[in-house]
Amino acid sequence: MGFVVIVVCAAALQQLGVEPYPGEVGRPVTVTAANESGPMTGLEVEVELPDGSGRAIGTTDAQGHLEFVPGAVGQHVFRAVVDGALVLAPHRVIAARRRWWIALGSVPLGLALLWQISRARGRRGP
Hints:
The chain is of the alpha+beta class. The chain has helices at 2-12, 100-124, and strands spanning 15-19, 23-24, 29-35, 38-39, 44-48, 54-59, 65-68, 74-82, 85-94. The radius of gyration is 24 Å and the shape is elongated.
């Protein structure tokens, strides 16, 4: 019996993937469903949230994609039933990263650029 299960799983090769890894709270993640013949269209996908509750999030589109925006930090498990087999895709979600360093670097750079432009115009004259 064990050999038959291994052969069936190897032949079916269903795949449920989630990107990017790790996901961030408030930013969309894309669930992709595919098998050896290509994208799986119209596949109903559910998610188990970190608090243990589950909910349906929708069906995959023509490319086998479905977007989901996580609202909590922790382990999310995406699941779908394909030909009677439950396919799982665990996915870790972290807190949104702060991007303050971009502003910290951009403001001085912008001021330096403005200063250089104003000096160049001052030398040209009216």
